[in-house]
Amino acid sequence: MPITKFRCKRCDHLFTDAEWSAALADYHRMGFVRCRNPGCSALWWCCEHAECNVQCTRRNDLRRHIAKYHSSCESVDCQPAQNDHRGGADTDLEMLDAGDLCGADTGVDFGGAGSAGGSDLDAFAGYDDGEWDVCVDDTGGDLHELESLPGDDDDDEQDDDDDETLDELPEDDEDEIVDEAAVAQEVALLQLLEDGDGQGLEAGDLGQSQDETQQEDAPDELHSLFAFPFFHDHPKNRLWFWQNYIVLSRRSKLVNNLQGLHRLEHRFGGLKGVCWRALHNEKLCGEQNTLSIADSARLFKMMTVALKCSGELQEDVADLVCAEMESMTDRGSFGDDYEARTKRALEVLVKKKMSMLSNFPSPRLIIKDNHALVESLDELMNMITMSEIPVQYMEAPTEYEEAVLDEYRREHGLNATPPKQTDCNLSSVAASDLLKELKESVRSEAELNSPGSGEEAVRNTAYWSINAWSDGFERAGLKKKKKGCWMITIDFINPDGNSTSNQHTHVVALGRSSASHTTALNHILSQIVNLRKRTRRFCGITGKWIYTSIGLLSYSTDRVERSALLMTGHLGTFGMRSHWAAGMNELRLPVCNDCFDDIANNFQNNPTPTFANTVCPRACCDRWDMGSATASTTELPKHYPKNRPNPDTGDAPKFRTVFMEEVKPYRQHFDWLVEGVTFAYKNACSTNRSTMWFKQNVRDFLRSMGVNKEVQDNVCRAAAAFKANPNNSLQFIPQLWLLGIPMHRFINSPMHLLFHGIVKDIMDFCLAFAKKFEKGEQFKTFVNEHLTELESLGLDWCKLLEVPRTYWQAENFLGLARVIPAIFGLFFEGGYIPERGAIASKSIQQMLNSLHVMISALMSPRLSKDADKIDSYIKVFLSCCHRASVKVYGPSNRKKLLWIGDGNGKSNFVSLLNLPDQIRHYGPVRWYYEGKNERHIQVIKPHLIRNMRSTETYFRSKLDLYFKTKHIELLKSRLEPKRIKRSEKDYCRYKSLVDLRQKFAEGTPLSASVIEFGALGTRIVIAFGGVNSMRFVTVSHDMPESSPEICGMPCAACRLCQSSFAVSREEMKRWSVHQCLLLPRKLKGVAFDQKYAIVYSDWDVLSRSNSKGEALLSYRLFSTDIMQDQLTLLAST
Question: Measured between alpha carbons, how far is residue 662 from residues 84, 635, 665, 839 in Å?
């Protein structure tokens, strides 16, 4: 440190060695030197530049000095400057702007409650977006206005004010009047922070700051506000989290010695400061300028109630709480006028720039291409870690894990263990690969900065994965032109297993669904890539510093969204299968009849066929394998640049040369696409007319690679610009392709692929088939009879609606997938279709059986990791879809093939072929079920449903309010007693035993539970009776060899036992291991014989062994060769 021992220029006191050591310790902590003379106590800010010994009595004077004499210095070593010994302001010195104030690494001025106008830091509260308005307090010092959050009733002009550039501060200032009381209060407070509970931060807890040029902090040092290494450009967040940081550093004493609500005091430093400033309408931010935890909790409750109201009701709420607010402050009454009192109360709670709501934390937001975006995901990650939101890391340092364990046991008991998920995507191969990538990134960065430090940096870093998702939605439930919205979310694993936690999913981009999302996507993904950098963060859970490295594990979208984001072809000749550039050869790709018969004949002994590494012995089909060496090819597009070689353009991409005769299927990756686009551009720029590519050549070449039309146009435009002027260099390669994120991380998500896609299309196909025989209305009536009964049960794990599917959601298609063989299959088996359609009806039954088996395997916790088995089930299902289409519409009608689709085509069916490899790498698809992201739409939709403005700032203000509301909900969950949420309804309780026996005899679908009877094993029981007088009766079931089936599902002979047993709801919940549905086999014109198929909540069924087991392909059903009769049902039938 360049400063040396000096005399105090106010009292001429010469520091002793001991006093100077103490002064230097203060300097490290507070940023200034305090005179040790008890009669003086002057504060001096010293210039650190070499050979410059200026001492100033004010921080602003030091800043002006540095700006004037050292602004061009690149380091602290510079030429000596003229010393300024006056200690006051120099009117000739230039004043630094607000950005310099934000980043200054100086001490903290805590304004005292009795100070006239507060210190420089007193004005820090409430700043937003780095903007600094200028106003004057009663001492003439500069203060800075707070920025408010526009309310729903504010007009767009108020929103636009946020973007205005503010004038610079004046260049001169009057000498500051030093308030001795404030100085004494400040010194006392800093001494309190220094002493604390006798525990400072350990040396190992402090590492390099985010600024790589900043030196490592000394042990036991607490950061001052201006030295706090986070939120430099966002003062509101900086103050909130700094106040949290200060009290968190002394958390152990607070937790151990306080009781009741005060035990939580260490978690609400920011809230207490915001409450005090809003209540007193002052910008002081010292420790004494905070409200008690009890008053803060009451004021917080008032704000949450006011937020739920609007208009006159909100004013009534404000009037009711005025008296209680007045009791919290020593400033007296808000006045006697009703309007003035109400206005003041609303200003404290939700209105104006000093209100509590306006000063809640939210990340900085920007507007790009009509989208509101989180400017820095790094800032959002800091907010998450400092807000004590638990994160399940892929790997963390041992010291950090021990600290988490200690803090958890401190609050939950000595034997408590923090929750941790094991059945999640962190155990996948993809997560292991991502962990290796992050470690290599950390190692390389550390070695570059300090050779030999790589392994130490890797060991001392916590690694964290996030998942992204994007989709459009209707804000008001009704489709209106240009009124839809679109958003990107990021989420991460919640250790306690609650996948629906709103604090673990965050919206980071918001805009109109009709707009182009390329700019927004590139910004967010670029920010995600930047999170790989090893960054120091403060952990609110442990109160310690930790280094993190964060990477993207997966990005989930539906097929249409994914094609648009990746800029790859959607549908058409070469874009049917996601992530592949391949044509569909409907004659060779499906399993041929002979191969299918060979496979089906083995179902009795092996109901799980094997397709892996097998080929057709007759070489007449590809067995749905596009990646084999013998895979079928597609003819070249009309204008493909065949035989137009140009040696100056380099090598062509793999399988897309100018000499090939047919297009071979190939799995896309970004490097291959970049190579192909660059190759096309170079050939289009050629001046040799015999080999140059014209626009049609470029388009067809890129189309064969599965590149969308936008990129094709960009390549043509860039080539034309280059020919016109060789100095022109237009960007034609999408930015996403160059970010280093592998294409396979944009995964096939199960909700849209399986339920909104496959199940919906199968449902429509069955209805269309029934209509061909004029049985459409009868089909709907039959199906609705069963669906209505199941819907009336109100089960959360099987939610169903009636057909048609006008208002169906993904959960309804999922529920149908559980029972579709026993409802749709029963109609086709029950004699409703005429005899001439019997064979086609049998083909549909086979398709429904294979669909149920495939989805059960994909979603089952027990089977969903078996990629080889799932691969076989997928190929059997696709074969059944092909065979059913041929039997219904004829073999020559390509557009009527279900797996290809009519019109623009259907890509979900062939995209199922991607799932086995995805499961091998990323784990079960159920881990990536995007229901939690879709559910998050309901979190942000209330902010959008009231109106939809066209201004650019509209989405920014709504996204800002969304983040503030999320933080409010977080604090609310900690301050208020946890309310008992309605538990999921897993089973139905019937009115009485008589009612139950009547339904059982009539063949009504029934809800049951599987409970554990100890040594007796499990039993199926059905509950009945009242809430406080509940009883259950057991269900016996027998499965003889001749038991019938419903569309491949075995049916058991069931009966209700005579005895019933009393049970409480708590016992029922504790004993239950599974839930199940009893689905009756009721055939047309046949008396019901109490035969039921049973499906379980974990996707298992009652198997032929009369026990719970996996759903299997039915040998009985597939023993009928539906293709032996070549007579087909033509479309004219």
Answer: 82, 5, 10, 38
Bridge partners, residue 241, by sequence? none
Closest CA to 405 of 390, 421, 418: 418
Between helix 867-889 and helix 593-600 the angle, nearest 10°, is 130
Q: What's the DSSP call for residue 835?
A: G
**Distance set, CA 285 to CA 147, 178, 250, 264, 791 (Å):** 17, 18, 18, 20, 57
DSSP assigned state of 95? P
* Beta-carbon contacts of residue 198 (< 8 Å; ≥ 6 apart): none
| pLDDT tens digits, 366-408 | 999 999 999 999 999 999 999 999 999 999 999 999 989 988 8
What's the CA gap between 605 and 1114, in Å, rounded? 11
Q: Mean pLDDT across the stretch 572-593?
A: 92
Q: What are phi and psi of 1121, to 5 degrees?
A: -85, 100
Alpha-carbon distance of 377 to 776, in angstroms, equals: 53
- Residue 12 corresponds to which amino acid? D
The length of the chain is 1133
Nearest of 211, 212, 267, 274 to residue 240 by alpha carbon: 274
DSSP 376: -
Listed in order, strand segments (DSSP E) in 905-1048 are 989-990, 1006-1012, 1018-1024, 1031-1038, 1045-1046
Q: Which of 441, 670, 402, 443 is nearest to 542 (CA)?
A: 402
Residue 798 pLDDT: 95
Q: Please answer whether residues 159 and 954 qualify as being in contact, where contact means their C-beta atoms are separated by less than 8 angstroms.
A: yes
**Cβ partners under 8 Å of residue 221, min gap 6:** 28, 29, 200, 201, 206
- Tell me which residue of 9, 67, 79, 1 sits closest to 37, measured CA to CA: 9
DSSP 15: P
210 by DSSP, 3-state: which?
coil
The helix (H) or strand (E) run that includes residue 537 is strand 535-539
pLDDT tens track for 631-670: 889 999 999 998 878 888 888 999 999 999 999 999 999 9
Letter string b/e over residues 767-796, b meaning 16 or more CB atoms within 10 A of that residue's CB: bebbebbebeeebbebbbebbebbbebebe
Pairwise CA distance, residues 408 & 929, whole Å: 30
Per-residue pLDDT of 583-593, as tens digits, reads 998 889 999 99
The Cα–Cα gap between 756 and 758 comes to 7
Q: At what angle do helices 670-684 and 709-724 cross, to 10 degrees?
A: 40
- Condensed to tens digits (0 to 9), the pLDDT of residues 598-638 reads 888 888 777 778 776 678 888 889 999 998 888 889 999 99
* Amino acid at the residue 837: G
More confident residue, 42 or 400: 400
Cα separation, 427 vs 703, whole angstroms: 37
Spell out the residues 6+ positions from residue 68 whose beta carbon is closer than 8 angstroms to its own: 92, 93, 94
Pairwise CA distance, residues 839 & 852, whole Å? 20
- The residue assigned the tokens 């590519």 is 693
For residue 102, the number of C-alpha atoms closer than 13 Å in the C-beta half-sphere is: 21
Alpha helices, DSSP H only, in 808-837?
810-829
Cα–Cα distance between 904 and 191 in angstroms, integer? 73
782-786: which pairs have CB atoms within 8 A and are 24 or more residues apart? 782/827, 782/830, 782/832, 783/823, 783/824, 783/827, 786/819, 786/822, 786/823, 786/826, 786/1005
Q: 238: closest CA among 229, 248, 250, 247?
A: 229
| CA dihedral sign of residues 105, 111, 115, 118 | positive
- pLDDT for residue 123 is more than 60: no
DSSP 8-state symbol, 582:
B
- Please give the pLDDT value at position 853: 97
Q: What is the DSSP letter of 981?
A: P
Contact 1023, 1068 (CB under 8 A): yes
Residue 453 Cα to chain centre, angstroms: 33
Q: How open is the CA angle 393-395-398, to the nearest 5 degrees?
A: 110
